[in-house]
Structures are given as structure tokens and as C-alpha cells.
């Protein structure tokens, strides 16, 4: 017998092992058992499932941890933010958001200066008092400069008339016309302080009271002391605005905010030798009221206003006399103050902060924990922590604080409570 080499022996052993494995597989099949390969594959699947389950458990635990201890929650732009919502808002035009002004003051530093020859700034209190601020300005204008002293080669009243003519009248129109037929070479002007006006004067929400000892007629209201009061409003309640050179214009008429226009106040062409016409015009988008001085004279308002209607160029303090007609009404009764409101369109963005039950139940306030290990201070809160939401901070992606919103009162938060907080940001 020939001697076998080592390689031959290993080959025969391998063949025998293969035959053995084949016989084992045939026996497993005969016994109804899966093959070895299927068993191995099943074991792999089972191990993978176990690993996946563990990953899910660890992920949920991490999510719970990061939720209860998180500092920031990112907004979902599609569900949590509503942009570009517009609404019209009105508020009192005077300092502090009040709607009525009953005290009127000037500054001697201003009225005694060169600018005082052109206009008077009107304050809500003494100009040097705390909180004093300019509310509006009054001015008198005359087309040819009557009623003023020559100043710097100019007549202040002529400069005022020209200024407002250029500001509110159509190009080429050189004279103010009231009620479409009565031309007036002299005007009194009220110009609201721009910062208080915001976007515009609210039409139908202003009322000017003027006093005068010679006021007569059906549109006058007695103050109980012998003098009378005329109340002026605009006609926006019963008429649409006229658009002149892109600017809305309403007529100034007698009446009140409460009762509307006084329909019995007719406007003949002339009365007592004075061209009557309407009381004036109001430009709400500019915050300007232009009054027909001739009509004011005819109505007996501050009767001595008429002394400036001559061609003489003398200083008659028409600004001060007009202001006296305003302040004189309020001095009789606080109900005769100057009422006005502004109007603006506010663009808002709404943010919805959704605080789920597991959110923000812990605090990084030092009083929340105690000891070196950071144990919860109150034992009753170990399994049932509670916090109070007082402020919402708005951050950018760099975690820079941009805005804060304060709740009207603290909001209790726990694992049993959820919250929806609506934040409105106005522009």
C-alpha cells in the first residue's frame, strides 16, 4: 500500500466532513427543523431586534432627559408662527395716550423768540415742568403779510400762509378756498406734533372747542357764564373724503363727536360783512387743520381777531389770541377740552409657544436644588416637580435674546399640565 501524503489525508477529511454535514442537514429536514443557515440568520435577526429595541429605549430616555431639562424650544415655522397680520389701531393723541387735552401752555423762551412770530408751540403743562411736552402748534397766516412785523426781510404771517399753501393745496392754487366758493386770504392753523400723530389723525375722532363772548347762532353752546362755546369736528361721519393732490381732505363743521354734525348750521356767502364759507379743512394724513379765519371772526370767536384783517403790518399776536380761544373754552369746563386720537396700521406676528406636559418642569434657579449632589429642595417635588412660567424669551439661532414677553400672572407648570402661550409682536 502506497503511503498517503498529508495533503491527501486533509482532502479526505474535508470530504468526510462535508458528507457528515450533508447527512445532518438531511436529518434536520426529516425531523421538520430549519436548516443551519436559516437558524443562523434567525439568530442575527433576533440580535438586531434586541439592539434596535435598546436603541429606542435609550433614545426615549435621552429625549425625556433633554425635554425636562432643556432651555430652548425651536419654533415650527409652519405651525407656530403667523406673520403679516394687519390691523388699524387708534389711541389718544396727547401725552400718556390721553384723548383729551384741557390745559394749554406756551414757552416764553419760544414765544419771545423769532420763531414765536411765526407759530406757538403748545405744551400740556408748564414748559419747564416734569413731563411737559409739545402737543401741537398754532399759527396765523395772511396771504399778503397782514398782522405781522417785518422779520428778516419777511412777514411771518405771509410765510405761514405760503408754507401751508405749498403743503396742502394743489400745484398752481394760490388761495385757500372753503366750501368750494369762498376764498380766504387769512387762515388759522393747528399742526399736531408729528411724533404724537404716528401715522395720521383719526377722522371723526377729534373735537375742537373755541370760546368767544360774541358767539351767536344755532351751533353755539352756552357755558353758563355768559360766554358761549362752538364745537368743531370734521364731516367724515356723513361724507367721504375729497382727495386733493393725493391727500385726503374733510370739511370742518360745527358739531360734536357724540352727536355728529350740526345740520342746522348753514353757510351763507356772507354775514355781518364777513365772507362766511365753511369753518375750514382738515388733512388727517398730514395732521393739519386749516381754519377759515373769516368764519371764526363772523362767529364771534375771539372777536378781536378782526384787528389784523387790515392791510397794516403790525404785530397783533394772532397766534396767542387763537390759543386763548382754545384754552378759554377748556377753562370754563373740562368737557370743552381739545379731543383728538391718532391712527396707525400695525403689522403683527403671532408666535404660539406650545409647552407640553413634559416640558419645563425643572428649573436652573439655585433655590430649586440643594446640597453638593443637586438634590431637589422640596421632597414633595421629587416625583412631581412644579414650576411657574413668568416670562417667554425670544432667541435667534445664536442664542441671543431678542425680545421678552411677560405673562400677566405666573402660570403653574407640571407633568399634569400643558400650556399654549400666544405672543404678539407688533411692528
Could you walk me through the main structural features you see in this protein, from its secondary elements to its overall organization?
The strands form seven sheets. Strands 3, 4, 7, 9, 10, 11, 12, 13, 14, 17 and 18 form an eleven-stranded antiparallel β-sheet that branches. It is elongated, with a radius of gyration of 42 Å. The protein has two domains: 99 residues, no CATH class; 246 residues, no CATH class. By secondary structure, it is an alpha+beta fold. It has seven helices and 25 strands.
Question: What shape does the CA trace take?
Answer: elongated
Q: Describe the biggest sheet?
A: 11 strands, antiparallel
Helices, by number, come to 7
What is the assembly state of the chains in this entry?
A: single chain
Low-confidence stretches: 216-226, 271-275, 306-312
Which class best fits the helix and strand makeup? alpha+beta
Radius of gyration: 42 Å
Content of β-strand: 25-35%
Number of structural domains: 2
The residue-averaged pLDDT reads 82
By DSSP, the count of extended strands is: 25
N-to-C span:
107 Å
- Helix % is 10-25%
Q: What brief labels describe this structure?
A:
427 residues, alpha+beta, 2 domains, 4-stranded antiparallel β-sheet, 7 helices, elongated
Amino acid at each position: 500500500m502506497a503511503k498517503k501524503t498529508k495533503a491527501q489525508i486533509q482532502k479526505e477529511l474535508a470530504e468526510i466532513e462535508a458528507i457528515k454535514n450533508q447527512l445532518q442537514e438531511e436529518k434536520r429536514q426529516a425531523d421538520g427543523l430549519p436548516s443551519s443557515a436559516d437558524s443562523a440568520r434567525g439568530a442575527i435577526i433576533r440580535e438586531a431586534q434586541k439592539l434596535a429595541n435598546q436603541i429606542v429605549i435609550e433614545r426615549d430616555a435621552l429625549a425625556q432627559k433633554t425635554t425636562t431639562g432643556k432651555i430652548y424650544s425651536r419654533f415650527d415655522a409652519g405651525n407656530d408662527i403667523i406673520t403679516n397680520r394687519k390691523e388699524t389701531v387708534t389711541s389718544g393723541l396727547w401725552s400718556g395716550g390721553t384723548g383729551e387735552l384741557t390745559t394749554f401752555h406756551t414757552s416764553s423762551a419760544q414765544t419771545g423768540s423769532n420763531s414765536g412770530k411765526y407759530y406757538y408751540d403748545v405744551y400740556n403743562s408748564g414748559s419747564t415742568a416734569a413731563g411737559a411736552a409739545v402737543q401741537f402748534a398754532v399759527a396765523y397766516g395772511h396771504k399778503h403779510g397782514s398782522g405781522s412785523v417785518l422779520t428778516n426781510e419777511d412777514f411771518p404771517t405771509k410765510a405761514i400762509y405760503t408754507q401751508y399753501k405749498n403743503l396742502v393745496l394743489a400745484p398752481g392754487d394760490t388761495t385757500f378756498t372753503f366750501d368750494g366758493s369762498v376764498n380766504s386770504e387769512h387762515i388759522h392753523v393747528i399742526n399736531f406734533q408729528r411724533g404724537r400723530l404716528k401715522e395720521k389723525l383719526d377722522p371723526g375722532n377729534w373735537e375742537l372747542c373755541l370760546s368767544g363772548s360774541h358767539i351767536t347762532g344755532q351751533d353755539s353752546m352756552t357755558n353758563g357764564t355768559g360766554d358761549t362755546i362752538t364745537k368743531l369736528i370734521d364731516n367724515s361721519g356723513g361724507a367721504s373724503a375729497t382727495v386733493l393732490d393725493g391727500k385726503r381732505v374733510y370739511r370742518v363743521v360745527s358739531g360734536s363727536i357724540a352727536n355728529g354734525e350740526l345740520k342746522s348750521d348753514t353757510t351763507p356767502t356772507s354775514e355781518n360783512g364777513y365772507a362766511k364759507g365753511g369753518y375750514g379743512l382738515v388733512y388727517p394724513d398730514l395732521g393739519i387743520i386749516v381754519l377759515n379765519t373769516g368764519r371764526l371772526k363772523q362767529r364771534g370767536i375771539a372777536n378781536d381777531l378782526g384787528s389784523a384783517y387790515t392791510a397794516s403790518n403790525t404785530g397783533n399776536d394772532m397766534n396767542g389770541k387763537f390759543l386763548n380761544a382754545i384754552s378759554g373754552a377748556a377753562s370754563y369746563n373740562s368737557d370743552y377740552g381739545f379731543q383728538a386720537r391718532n391712527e396707525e396700521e400695525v403689522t403683527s406676528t403671532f408666535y404660539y409657544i406650545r409647552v407640553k406636559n413634559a416640558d419645563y418642569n425643572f428649573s436652573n434657579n439655585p433655590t430649586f436644588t440643594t446640597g453638593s449632589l443637586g438634590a431637589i429642595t422640596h421632597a414633595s417635588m421629587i416625583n412631581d416637580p412644579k414650576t411657574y412660567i413668568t416670562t417667554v424669551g425670544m432667541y435667534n439661532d445664536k442664542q441671543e435674546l431678542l425680545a421678552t414677553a411677560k405673562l400677566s400672572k405666573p402660570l403653574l407648570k407640571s407633568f399634569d399640565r400643558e400650556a399654549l402661550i400666544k405672543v404678539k409682536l407688533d411692528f
